[in-house]
Amino acid sequence: MPGPRFPGRLILATRGAVPRSVLEAIVAQVSRLFALEVSLPAHPLSIPGQQDAWQGSQLLANWVTSLLERLYGDFDAMSLAVVTDDITIPVMRYVLGQAQMGGRHAVISTARIGGGNLEERASKLAVHEVGHLFDLVHCEDPVCAMFAVVSMQELDRRTSLLCRYCTADLANARCLRNKD
Ligand SMILES: [Zn+2]
Ligand SMILES: [Zn+2]
């Protein structure tokens, strides 16, 4: 069964010194591709040094999306946190981003994507995770935004555009979720 309808707005949140140019690039790509209203400035997130948010020096991605849900769950909006901390989920060494499948909240990290075009790399990560919030799954096309990447080479080859299959899936998901 399809979940509740998709909101038309995305709240951006940040932790750490994320350059304004990175946020502007994310806003441009995400608002265009998903027809979402995304506004700046981003909300600063405060994450306590408490034990359960962290695994060593890495921030737990699921903890961040749960925090976003606590903060913004009552808003008719999706949310995306952009953090400078390295993030992970317990079974992985690290992740570049994480989204609640079927949920409304996602996180991306800039910790491992420096040394190249940070704006472009970060907006690719944002498009991928927001794609998951719109029910999109991983795609086998290496240039499609929904291709799952591990390396920087793969991220740099991936675009921030959806292939025609994912574009169709997005239209179908919107149709299923947004009908009365
Ligand atoms: Zn993914
Ligand atoms: Zn695709």
Description:
Helix 1 packs parallel to helix 3 (118-133). The strands form 2 sheets. Strands 1, 2, 3, 6, 8 and 9 form a 6-stranded mixed sheet that branches. The protein is an alpha/beta fold and 180 residues long. A hairpin with a 2-residue loop joins strand 4 (54-55) and strand 5 (58-60). The chain is 36% helix and 18% strand. The chain is globular and about 40 Å long. The structure holds zinc ion (ZN) (2 copies).
Strand content: 15-25%
Q: From the helix content, strand content and strand pairing, which structural class follows? A: alpha/beta
Instruction: Please state the average pLDDT score.
Output: 94
Q: What do we call the CATH homologous superfamily?
A: Collagenase (Catalytic Domain)
Ligands, ions, cofactors: zinc ion
Poorly predicted tracts of residues: none
What pattern of helices and strands is seen along the backbone? EHEEEEHEEEEHHH
User: How helix-rich are the residues, as a percent range?
Assistant: 25-40%
Would you state the CATH class?
Answer: Alpha Beta
Can you tell me the CATH topology?
A: Collagenase (Catalytic Domain)
Outline: globular
Q: What summary fits the major beta sheet?
A: 6 strands, mixed
